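Quarterly update from the structural biology core.
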Amino acid sequence: MDDSQSIPTSRPPVLLGCFASLTLLFLLVVGAGACITFLESGANSGKVVLEPAGAYPPGTITRVVQSGFYLVNLRGEGLFALSDIDAVNRASDSRRCRVETIDPADPAYADARTRYVDRFTASALTAAIVLRENCNGAIFDGTGARLDQDGPNLDRLEVSVDDTGRVVVNTARRTCSEGALGDRVSVDCP
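Predicted structure, tokenized:
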């Protein structure tokens, strides 16, 4: 057999195979690390970890804009979270107006407290909290109860305190209701 008819025996360099294997291993380790970080962040569960419970004194409302809720602490009710989007806006495909607090210096605040005083829940009367959705004009007290007319209240989100004393809000678990606190009736969430 002459050299012109020999069968080629070349193969890819071993170094190329080792490099490809190391690259694949690196990508797997980085991917696994990213997955662990994502899972531990609470992003998969809807859990938002906030400051220790003592950072939210009674009579306060704190908006957590990036997560779409208010954390409220009322005497007689303790800590709870309210969605910052009401049922009408949640159901709308065209617009999503958020619920906002009315500043006590705003004349609309005094008007709402006077006009709807008989509809406020007892614990909401002790706090200077009134919420308003500006697109449709819905008014809510500090417990999330609808004041201006009968209809769905603001959704409540599950709240707990973890082992380190930090407040944890589960945005994936909502409770929906209608009526004032004393007459509040649970309804199916849309």
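Helices lie at 14-40, 87-91, 107-115, 122-125.
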